Amino acid sequence: MLNRKLSRRGALKAGAVTTGLIGGVGLAAPLLGPTAEADVTGVVGPAVTPMFAVPLTVPQVLQPTSTSSTTDYYSVTMQKAVKEIIPGLQTEVETYNGQYPGPTIKARSGRRVVINQTNALDLPTSVHLHGAEVPVDSDGNPMVTIPPGGSKTYTYPNNQLGAPLWFHDHAHHLESEHVYRGLSGMYQLSDDNDRCQPLPSGQYDVPLLLRDVNIDSTGKLVYTMGDFTNRTTILVNGRPWPYFQVAARQYRFRILNSSNLRFFVLALSDGGSFTQIGSDGGLLATPCTTNQLKLSPGERADIVIDFSRYPVGTQLVLLNNTGPGPADLIGKVMRFDVVRDALDLSYVPDTLRTLPTPPIATVNRTFVLRMDEDGRANPMAYINDLTYDPNRIDTQITWGTTEVWTITNANVRAPHNFHVHLVQFRILERNGKAPDPSESGLKDTVALLAGETVKIQLTFDSYRGVYLYHCHLFDHGAMGMMGTMQIS
Description:
The protein folds into three domains: 66-196, Sandwich (Immunoglobulin-like), CATH 2.60.40; 202-341, Cupredoxins -  blue copper proteins (Immunoglobulin-like); 363-487, Immunoglobulin-like (Sandwich), CATH 2.60.40. Helix content is 6%, strand content 39%. The protein has helices spanning 8-17, 175-180, 192-196, 327-330, 474-478, and strands spanning 66-67, 71-83, 91-96, 105-108, 112-119, 127-130, 151-156, 163-169, 184-190, 205-213, 233-236, 239-240, 243-248, 250-257, 264-268, 274-279, 282-290, 293-295, 300-306, 315-320, 332-341, 363-371, 381-383, 395-397, 402-409, 416-420, 425-430, 442-443, 445-448, 453-459, 465-470, 482-487. A hairpin with a 3-residue loop joins strand 1 (66-67) and strand 2. The model is unreliable at 1-28 and 32-41 (pLDDT under 50).
């Protein structure tokens, strides 16, 4: 069995060095200069691969094992596999059905999905469908795990608006390494409105799963909790700095930051604009034009890039304009190569959907996120000065009510974010001001820089039971920054 002891000291270091990664008013963490030569005494050095040398691949869409008039049934096995991530090297990863990253599941609102998950790994697992309204026994509670050799059936009613959901491991104190090693995948939930949009579709609708890793020169995927310093290989759909051949037309990209800790600020190398059409909870009410996209771990965004403005032969790099890390490595994500002309009848309409009007809030709550950053030997992370206790209910909620939560990051250096299970919420304020248009839609994860405060509005009208809220920087959650709410 693998030795996976929790390194809280490493997690604290990670929190400290990520200061100022993302926010509404600019960046505070610079990209560093070119990579310095490391002291490799007793340490296997990192794998080296040229950028833009491998093509982007798109995760396979998983097909149901059977269907009925109301339900699609799937069978998934969590298992180890060996993949060629860095050309010429073999890397052992943890997978859903042998795929790295996991396969994409395409679901429809109003049509149920049932997945039998079998754990063929050597440690317990728990599968969480991030962003979904699901009954409590299918939410992926971190303490309700699938033992090695065991199976569990998860039922997803899909009684919500279309959204770019994703699934990942959530076994407490194991989720960080499991997700790092590959246990994550996209779950694209569509509704009638989304399918009727004149947006790019088919081969022009492409998922992009982003993450950073450390692969050594032997091909080993090296995991150390809280390690930003050495995770300098950027993967897109499991490929290092890939290139993607595009036609001179519009493309829709559904982007997920599946990293454990790294924030991204994405931009095109020519400074060109693109259109954001959606976020965690699906389509925005109206599109917004921007030249950068900020994503903390667990957040998603739906964007459209129009390559028709570039002549055939153009090579355009997708940049990451934030650190920490060497700019020559983590400052680049992938490259788009415009290789042909193409007819394009797609367009982005002025109105994408009508968002539901939230009921009037009757309850106000305050949550303070904080982690020890004073250099102590065993730092912890807290919500309202409490560390996670699965046997304690932190928040009692009356089913059917609407609440406003004020969430503050009390740290001086460390950034956090905040993910709520079960519900999609609306951001009312960020630091006392209206949210940016990119945050105007439905959300389930919100970023908070050190010292920031956000207000969110949530309605608890789907399922009853005990659910989580937590920082989605996996290491911070493992250090204790999780709480439980009981809806009854």
